[in-house]
Amino acid sequence: MARRPLPRILSSGSASITRSREIARTAADNATDVLHPLITVTRGLRLLAGAGGRKWSATPRDRRGHVLFLGAACALAVALIPYGPLLALISVMGAAAWRGHDRTPAKTRPGEAETERLRALYEALVPHFSVPDDPGPLFSHGGDWEKAFGTSYEFDGNGRLTRLQVSYPAYFTDGDPLSRARVEQVLHAKSGRGREYHFVWDEEGNRLHMSVLAALPTTIAAQRFVTAPGETVLGFTDADAVRRTVPVRDGEVTRDAPPVIWRTGARSTEPHLLIVGHPGGGTTTLMRSLALQALQHGGDVLVVEGGGTGEYGFLTGQDGVLAVESGLAGALATLEWAAHETERRLIAANRARQAGHPEPEDIKRPLWILLDRPSALGHLAAADRRQDPQELLQVPLRHGRAAAVTVVVADAFDSLDALTETVRTHTRARAVLGPADREQVAAVLGTPPHTTPTPDVPPGRGYTRLGNGPVLRLQVPATPDPYDGATSEAHRRAVLDLLPGGTTAVEQAAPETAGPVSTHKDQPIGTPAVAEG
Fold it and tell me: What is the DSSP letter of 518?
């Protein structure tokens, strides 16, 4: 049977479509050529506006008024000069055209070394993203890596990956933490160790986003933070992790930084905090920072130091500091008083509510109990057949939120087993500082972080989690012991200025005076207020 010819409209359709595409492409090219100067000027104006915005953000707040006055004076001078506005407009357009034209062309294809790195990474992921009975595998040995990575990747100046998007097959068990961890470990090892990677799993789209996180700044020192009563700054984190910023002094400039805010008080869902880390990781630094912030908001502070290193001696005798104890007898007496004080506050509040009266003012003042290294005191108490100090924390931990009592416990990783069940249960705000692997972080926070911890971190660097919230990176503000000889003068002054009144006896002592430095209560550093019994 003879084949019938196609209708004319179908046989000539391909030629018409091709001609239409050529006409459309020619029109687009001509429009781009005509509008190229306007596009260049618009791009330059956008770049100039961005540079001006960054310059304005970097300007200290106390100097912005002078900058505004100078700008207004220049604008007035230009307006009074003949042809001044026209010349200013021509100058701005010329600068925008120059800035918009000076643009480095984007790199569309990776180089040979970068291509080899992507191919090696693709081959390393084949065992994790493939199965033998897959008829059309996305990952296969010798396969096309561009199908899995596409063009969503970036490299730094050293040729190492800084961003990558991986498309994986739908049958991969992305809901299994162990499967995720194996893939993240491969990406971490093949992309370069010594950096912190952030992983985001898009389970609906079957995509994994990997990016390299910039190091959190360590130049923010102890200072007065702009917070409301009941809010405490644990440290600072990534800009896209929180919705709030606070102005801070970072060296010689003032800028906005994203803080990790911990809320305490009657409406707090996580009224108590547990800090865990290795020696030198920054747990004591965070405890000092919390003590200074509590004193700034008018709270009373009790410090019990189990390590006996005297790193809280600068607080002794300060207004609002009820006691700084390092001995077993003094710690037991102080914590026993704190338990009775919590009960007294609860009874007073209950009686006031029953009588229809407002709560007394003396029970509204926040009371902070800071217990550093309770495991050391527990060993001493067991050897002396005395009560474990942690047992005296049951009442403040269970009923502290209603009584405006906040408990902060800090200990080392090797002493986690010595913490009582009450401490573990009621400290729902957690922080891990110093070098730690994913398993150690998950054991404390309840879930692993979405980043790869690095073995070498500065003091005060770690992770935090408030209740059931997300795991956030954390950098504690530098709050060293001002009496330590290794403390710089800038950090020493920053800590001493935050004390109530801002003056201590160490400032009044002459530099050539021999002997130990004492507080204004004539009490040597490290000597407990209550003698050991």
Answer: B
Determine how β-strand 367-372 pairs with β-strand 405-412.
parallel
CA-CA distance, 345 to 405, in Å (whole number)?
9
DSSP string, 71-133: HHHHHHHHHHSTTHHHHHHHHHHHHHHHHHH--PPPP-S--HHHHHHHHHHHHHHTTTS--TT
**Radius of gyration in angstroms for the set of CA atoms belonging to the chain, rounded to a whole number:** 32
* 429-433 and 196-202 strand pairing: unpaired
Q: How many angstroms separate the CA atoms of 516 and 158, rounded?
A: 52
Least confidently predicted of 86-95, 287-296, 455-464:
86-95
Q: What is the mean pLDDT of residues 185-209?
A: 90
Cα 317 to chain centroid, rounded: 33
- Which tens digits make up the pLDDT trace of 210-237? 999 988 999 999 999 999 989 999 999 9
Q: Is pLDDT of 445 > 80? A: yes
The answer to whether residue 527 scores a pLDDT higher than 80 is no
What angle, 0 to 180 degrees and rounded to 10, lies between the N-to-C axes of helices 112-125 and 177-191? Answer: 160
Q: How far is CA 506 from CA 285, 441, 502, 521, in A?
A: 20, 39, 11, 12
Q: Which of these, 388, 396, 328, lies nearest to 367 by C-alpha position?
A: 396
Q: How far apart are CA 36 and CA 254, in angstroms?
A: 40
Task: Report CA 8 to chain centroid distance, whole Å.
Answer: 68
Phi, psi dihedrals of residue 89, rounded to the nearest 5°:
-65, -45
Single-letter amino acid code for the residue at 429: A
Locate tokens 């007035």: which residue?
76
Q: What contacts 347, CB < 8 A, 6 or more positions away?
A: none
